[in-house]
Design brief:
- Helices cover about 55% and strands about 5% of the residues.
- The chain has about 450 residues and is of the alpha+beta class.
- The chain has 2 domains: about 70 residues; about 290 residues, Orthogonal Bundle (Cytochrome p450).
- The strands form 3 sheets. It has a 5-stranded mixed sheet with strand order 1-2-8-5-3, with helices on one face. It has a 3-stranded antiparallel sheet with strand order 4-10-9. The protein has a two-stranded antiparallel sheet with strand order 6-7.
- Strand 6 and strand 7 form a beta hairpin.
- The chain binds protoporphyrin IX containing FE.
- Protoporphyrin IX containing FE binds next to helix 13 and helix 17.
- The site of protoporphyrin IX containing FE has 22 residues, from helix 13 and helix 17.
């Protein structure tokens, strides 16, 4: 009986995956045909535009989940980090497996982290070592979980209200709101202020771009990032020196780190600086991009937009968050998380989709695909606000899960609430009302209201 049940479950899983792929294939054909017939630009531009839309990427993932869920190719697609080939991992259980097996699938960022700090590694570039545990433990004492409710969310709410109220009918979100609130968190809660708010935004954006997005290793991006790193190091050094000189005991991340230093002399000023650098880079461009992409997805779905707006008007940030994070599932900031195989190993062992991953291969764990895998997610193509939080892989999974995970969940609804509460919220006409994609981090996206 159990054997029969297992056979039935396996067949059902294949049927579900196949059906999902067929539907995805038809939707992809329709989108491509529409773009070719009615789009703007050359044929190639129209085709690339159609196929790189988030909805098309979701469809492509669905097709590959059915035909080649763990695909290994000899070509190096990411050339900015050492590797000797590429593996794509698409099923939810396999994505989780890659991110859980950090001994076999290692983070690759160490050389760039060292270049940014001017020496030591930062914990996102570390394996599960004593140093990783030391640094994350101290930083968790400096950046406490209960700060999210007590300090960070009230700060984000107040700043979002103030910034948004200066642009009551028409707002360019990144410039006037979504970059500014995380920059305020960095200065007022982390305790790291730049001479100008725009400096911190620019440094963090350049560094994030170089570390995580520049997959081809463009020299111009590297040069800009290394200059930004130098400036950021100086700004943090200055913040530490000023705090020490003033004798001020402020209850923020820097203040707590300096307190901790008294009992942990190895956590010297340089170590504090290096840990703060990583947090600053992580915080600004990501929160802004996530806010912009979530709102963009809502604007494409009138019913969901109406629900989110009602939650915003009622001041129900938990429900608003459910709308925003579901929207972000359809276009997350990081659709893929990459690792490098430390040794030759097998993924999805003892299944029909088991694949050998060669040592040195770059493994692209597609969390976007995982969040649409019908074997894990109930009716994944529907927009729903009742999904369990565990369905979302919006900022990593496993040991390196985002350090700001709790901040993100609280702050993104707080940032967007004042705008979503506006009557007749809509995109501005023309290109201004579409996310500006000229760089990986949206600089412009204008919405209007009555
Ligand atoms: C919506 C906004 C954010 C997104 C989408 C995001 C995304 C991510 C992702 C995908 C990872 C895992 C990287 C990997 O495993 O290779 C990560 C890790 C990390 N993030 Fe974020 N992040 C966000 C906000 C923040 C904030 C606000 C901070 C600072 C408070 C931050 C600091 C970090 C750090 C330090 C790590 C490394 C954690 C570790 O190695 O244990 N991030 N983030």
């Amino acid at each position: 009986m159990t054997l029969l049940k297992n056979i039935f479950a396996t067949l059902r899983a294949y049927a579900l995956t196949l059906l999902d792929a067929v539907v995805a294939l038809f939707s992809l054909i329709a989108v491509t045909a529409r773009a070719l017939v009615a789009g703007e630009g050359t044929l190639k531009e129209r085709l690339v535009g159609a196929l790189t839309r988030p909805s098309s990427l979701i469809a492509i993932c669905a097709i590959f989940r059915a035909v080649a869920p763990n695909l290994v190719i000899g070509k190096r697609l990411i050339t900015s980090y050492d590797n000797n080939g590429t593996a794509f991992v698409l099923r939810a259980t396999d994505v989780i497996e890659v991110l859980d097996r950090e001994e076999d699938f290692a983070v690759v960022y160490e050389p760039k982290m060292r270049a940014i700090t001017g020496g030591p590694n930062f914990f996102l570039g570390m394996q599960n070592t004593a140093q990783y545990q030391h640094d994350t433990s101290l930083m968790k004492l400096a950046m406490r979980r209960d700060d999210v409710e007590a300090l960070v969310t009230p700060l984000a709410r107040a700043r979002a209200e103030a910034y948004a109220s200066a642009f009551p009918k028409r707002i360019d979100l990144p410039q006037e709101l979504t970059l500014r609130v995380p920059a305020a968190i960095v200065s007022d809660y982390f305790g790291v202020s730049a001479q100008a708010e725009t400096d911190a935004i620019q440094w963090a954006t350049s560094l994030f771009w170089w570390l995580f997005v520049d997959l081809k290793g463009e020299p111009a991006i590297e040069t800009k990032a290394l200059m930004a790193a130098d400036e950021l190091r100086k700004a943090i050094d200055a913040a530490i020196a000023a705090r020490k000189a003033s004798g001020e005991t402020k209850d923020d991340v820097l203040g707590r780190a300096l307190e901790l230093q008294k009992g942990a002399p190895e956590f010297d000023d340089l170590a504090i600086r290096n840990n703060l650098i990583g947090l600053v880079i992580g915080a600004i461009p990501t929160i802004s991009k996530a806010s912009v992409q979530a709102l963009d997805q809502l604007l494409d779905r009138p019913e969901a937009l109406a629900g989110a707006q009602a939650a915003a008007v009622a001041g129900d940030e938990a429900l608003l968050g459910a709308y925003l994070f579901e929207a972000l599932r359809f276009n997350p900031v990081n659709p893929v998380i990459y690792r490098r195989a430390n040794r030759s190993t097998v993924i999805a062992a003892n299944t029909f989709r088991a694949r050998k991953i060669p040592e040195g291969a770059m493994v692209l764990a597609a969390n976007l695909s995982a969040m649409f895998d019908p074997l894990q997610i109930d009716k994944p193509n529907e927009f729903r606000v009742d999904r369990p939080w565990g369905n979302y892989i919006l900022w990593g999974y496993g040991m390196h899960t985002c350090f700001g995970a709790y901040i993100n969940r609280a702050v993104i609804p707080a940032i967007l609430r004042p705008v979503l509460a506006r009557p007749n919220l809509r995109r501005a006409a023309g290109a201004a009302g579409q996310i500006d994609v000229s760089t990986p981090f949206p600089q412009h996206f204008v919405v209007e209201s009555d």
